[in-house]
Design a protein that fits this description.
Layout lengths: L1 H21 L14 H10 L3 E8 L9 E7 L3 E2 L4 E2 L3 E7 L17 H21 L1
Parallel strand pairs: 1-5
Antiparallel strand pairs: 2-5, 3-4
Length: 133
């Protein structure tokens, strides 16, 4: 039984050392998800970092109008001392229309994203109508 305890403690210790050395694998917070690329890239720039488009889905919208579906700090290292890159944020864009039409792909009108986009469009139209009267 004492031998099992030594093995268990050794395994826990090895796991702790590997997590400290290699990192825990937990991703950084996704601070820009849901924003347009135009807004997210401005916020990233204001934070002293640069935005890099890691992937893009769809081609209906212009880059600045695309929605950031995910963002993360760059996971690579640089230089002879292998220091981590801390000034780059990777953004993953969804450039499909906010709601699908007969001509353009996008979110289903029945999805939460589609319903939110339709509601926002209706609210914007109501504001425009009441503001112009």
């Amino acid at each position: 039984m004492k031998k099992f305890g030594v093995y268990a403690i050794s395994a826990v210790g090895a796991a702790a050392v590997s997590m400290a050395f290699f990192g825990s694998g937990v991703a950084a917070a996704d601070d820009y998800s849901g924003q347009t690329y135009g807004d997210a890239s401005k916020a990233i720039s204001d934070a002293g970092k640069k935005a890099v488009i890691a992937s893009r889905t769809g081609d209906t919208l212009a880059d600045d109008e695309c929605i950031v579906s995910h963002s993360q700090s760059a996971p690579w290292i640089k230089g002879d001392d292998f220091s981590p890159v801390t000034d780059t944020v990777l953004v993953y864009l969804n450039c499909n229309a906010t709601v699908a039409t007969a001509k353009d792909p996008g979110n289903s009108a029945a999805s939460p994203e589609g319903r939110a986009a339709i509601q926002k469009a209706q609210e914007d139209a109501a504001k425009a109508a009441s503001g112009s009267s």
